[in-house]
Design goal:
201 residues, alpha/beta, 4-stranded parallel sheet, 6 helices
Length: 201
């Protein structure tokens, strides 16, 4: 995947995006520095597991704000930049919760369901305008330091003890994104689901 491209990451909060429309200014800055800038990503998680009666209004709203509302803001502002160019790819990262509401995940699932609906609506509107909208469902834990620490805290498992290929590597996720980004217009994929072979589903 070493194609000589350049990636610039920004991590503003949803309220910051709303107040300052920073995603728009960041996209414009990126386009000014690189004429080949063609893609935008919304990868926020907000994974929270709480029994229904312990799910406060604040927690529910924050999950939605991070996973769904922020996705809307990123998608809208990326569209402002891409429409005049007549091309682009917008990626949204989903989870198991995007398609299944499990016990304890009322806040997270509702937010991810909403993000998936947003991606579908955008794909139907923007596809004819040559903007490819992709929703990638990651049905697994991601092989990252944050997940390693979470597994150690929950089950006492050290990173070295995690079975091989039981977590999805970030490089595999990047390959999936790259696959979708390079597709020809006559065969666009809107939704992909990604999981290790050993994952139960």
């Amino acid at each position: 995947m070493n194609s000589g491209g350049k990636v610039t990451a920004f991590t503003p909060s949803a309220p910051m995006l709303a107040r300052k429309r920073r995603s728009r200014s960041c996209s414009r800055t990126s386009s000014a520095t690189s004429g080949r800038s063609r893609s935008a990503f919304s990868i926020a998680g907000s994974n929270v597991n709480k029994p229904l009666l312990e799910t406060t209004e604040k927690l529910f709203f924050k999950a939605w704000e991070l996973a769904c509302y922020a996705g809307f803001l990123v998608g809208r502002e990326a569209t402002r930049v891409m429409l005049p160019r007549g091309r682009g790819t917008i990626f949204f990262t989903g989870a198991t919760a995007s398609i299944r509401g499990s016990k304890g995940f009322a806040a997270f699932s509702s937010a991810k369901f909403g993000l998936r609906a947003l991606a579908q609506a955008m794909a139907r509107e923007l596809g004819p305008k040559n903007i490819h909208v992709v929703h990638l469902i990651i049905d697994a834990g991601v092989d990252s330091e944050a997940i390693h620490q979470r597994m150690k805290a929950a089950r006492g498992i050290e990173a070295s003890e995690i079975p091989p290929d039981s977590l999805t590597k970030t490089s595999s996720i990047a390959e999936a994104y790259w696959f979708a980004h390079q597709q020809s217009r006559d065969g666009w994929t809107h939704e992909l689901d990604l999981r290790p072979a050993a994952e139960k589903w």
